[in-house]
Amino acid sequence: METMVCPMGGGATRLYSTLSQTLSSTGSPLPLPPAHQPANTNLDPDFCQEQTGSPVCPPDPVELLRQCQEALRDRPPRFHRKLIHLSDGDGAPSSPIRVMQWNILAQALGEGLDSFVQCPLEALSWSRRKYLILEEILTYRPHILCLQEVDHYYDTFQPVLAGLGYSSHFCPKPWSPCLDVEGNNGPDGCALFFDQSRFELLDSVNIRLSAMRIPTNQVAVVTTLRCRTTGRCLCVAVTHLKARSGWEWLRSAQGSDLLRHLQNLVQKHAGGPAGDTNTDIPLLICGDFNAVPTEEVYRRFSTSPLGLDSAYKKLSQDGLTEPEYTTWKIRPTGECCSTLDYIWYSRDTLRVDAVLDMPTEEEIGPNRLPSFSYPSDHLSLVCDFSFKEKD
């Protein structure tokens, strides 16, 4: 089955915004947006200043974290989450790779369409949320950062994180619901960042996921990296599957499309015969799957011939159970507490060394997420991985 691929780094433009609103009403399919940065991007003045034509950001992550904490000094305390270190055998971790998966909540959706009835409007303002989001990222300092619902890529996340040494790729949704919100900042999409001091880029491709050959509104970014410490290669994907109940069949088809693409890519880069697991590149697949563990798409990933396992099962007593929740919110339709977010990894070639635990119900509070303490309705997932020794 053919996968539609779009160029790297597609951006939001006002022209595209206008086009999408015009064409979406006629039902005409839209191509992915053009692969260049919008000319009219205004860099966030709190973090970036234009100097001789290029964005200059605070280069020191400790200083930037302090800046975020100073801006948030009147907020309630942060969640106290512990990194749980695992003794999985196979020797001590040499130099673990820290991975963060997070649906950060698109600003236009948080303020416009998602209707978090218990969350005060001030807590949803971008002037607060941007500091909370950056504080979370800077607290854990991942080598690989996979984000969904990113609608402030060009004005905030790309320039700020580039100033801290991250390279990145962004793929917007073709028909982002953000574009229906007045005063939006362009379409939301998936973004993948990696620490350039730790990894060298080999390849990156943006995919528009299909279901039974029909292009959908969901996307993925797939990046192949070489670890500068070990010389080993790693293929990382970030995706965000279709939301809402009733769309289980579509999520399953989208997941199958992504798995097929990854299988082809791994075989191409490995250079060995198809199915030769000794030459397979380890995979990390991060995403908001919008699917609970009993759904078909979860089973497809857990039984895939790619040999994948879900890292957050390591938090459970038996090592077989996902967390009780990765998202907890209250909408007009009621309370939603469920596990929708995952970090999948190649169990034969990668080892999970540590997993960040979940905040308690008491910490999250009666009004749930988002809140003055936490900027998204989804909790970040953070894991430390290391390469298993080759036989």
From TrEMBL:
GO terms for cellular component: cytoplasm. Residues 100-378 form the Endonuclease/exonuclease/phosphatase domain. Gene3D superfamilies: Endonuclease/exonuclease/phosphatase. GO terms for biological process: circadian rhythm; nucleobase-containing compound metabolic process. Residues 22-54 are annotated as: Disordered. It holds the Pfam family Exo_endo_phos. Residues 38-54 have a biased composition (Polar residues). Its cofactor is Mg(2+). The keyword Hydrolase applies. Keywords: Biological rhythms, Cytoplasm, Hydrolase, Magnesium, Metal-binding. It is found in: Cytoplasm. The keyword Hydrolase applies. GO terms for molecular function: metal ion binding; poly(A)-specific ribonuclease activity. Belongs to the CCR4/nocturin family. PANTHER family: CARBON CATABOLITE REPRESSOR PROTEIN 4, NOCTURNIN. This is Nocturnin. The lineage of its organism: Eukaryota, Metazoa, Chordata, Craniata, Vertebrata.
